[in-house]
Amino acid sequence: MTDGRTLRRILTAFGILVAAWLVVPTLIVVPISFSGQDSFAFPPSSWGLQHYVTFFTEASWLNALLVSLQLAVIVTVVATVLGTAAAFALARTSLPGAGAVNGLFLAPLIVPGIVVAIAVYATFLNWGLIGTPTGFVLAHTVLALPFVVVNVGASLRGFDRTLERAAASLGASSWATFRQVTLPVIRPGVASGALFAFVTSFDEVVVSLFIQSPQLQTLPVRMFTSVTNEVDPTIAAASTVVLVVSTVLLGLTGLTRRSKSRA
Asked: 35 by DSSP, 3-state: which?
């Protein structure tokens, strides 16, 4: 018994150290964003909001933020609808090729991002979609679909199908059964998939670098450009905004999963 407790304490301490190693460097960006200097000095010798003022007033930064938000919302809707339909079809089919199809949906999670980016670039170049809103939506949807399929598929695997048979026996149509019986039960999985889809699109940089144009840049691409071409502490404010948005959404995902487990 004592050995078990000791092992758990060691594993807990190790987990805390790993988490600190991963999180602390990221959190250093936050105080830098409130620096009153035009440098990346840490710790800051003075404090101010000038970098946030620049971020929310300068056209290049503000336009990139709005493009990322609008794109993420559209991708979330499209990926959630398509991913939910795909997960439902995969969970309710017994075709021999269902496993291969499921593997294709999960491929963007397995294939290195640079390989996906090159493939998307070569394809979109032939289709004339480079630097277009449609191209961004298609590319980000492909990257976000696996998260929706995985989350909704997990909810469907734990779904009791006797509820659907009971609804059908009472005269409910297939659409009414899905809308009034199935969807309310799997809603936490759908919501989790949607949140992950939003974060995936909002944070995506590798593929976006390949399909961007001077007139259409997302916030991560604008941040990458700032790092490589100039020394602008405004990127610290931009990084903090991205960090806060991603953390809040992932926190909501955790709350959604917790409510699902309680239910």
From this structure: strand
- Dist CA 237 CA 32 (whole Å): 8
pLDDT of residue 95: 66
- The answer to whether the beta carbons of residues 257 and 188 sit under 8 Å apart is yes
Mean pLDDT of the chain: 81
H helices present in the chain, as ranges: 2-27, 29-33, 50-57, 59-91, 98-110, 113-127, 133-157, 162-169, 174-177, 183-203, 206-211, 219-229, 234-262
Is it the case that residue 201 has pLDDT exceeding 60?
yes
Q: Of 254, 235, 226, 236, give the one whose Cα is nearest residue 29.
A: 236
Type of residue at 149: V
Hey, how many other C-beta atoms are within 10 angstroms of the C-beta on 247? 12
Average pLDDT rounded to a whole number, residues 244-260: 70
As a whole number of Å, the end-to-end CA separation of the chain is 33
The domain defined by 49-262 folds into: MetI-like fold (1.10.3720)
Residues 198 and 72: their CA atoms lie apart, in Å, by 5
Measured over the CA atoms of residue 127, residue 205, residue 248 and residue 15, the dihedral's sign is positive
How many C-alpha atoms does 98 have within 13 Å on its Cβ side?
12
Give the closest residue to 221 by CA, choosing from 203, 198, 196: 203
**Which tokens sit at 13?**
């301490």
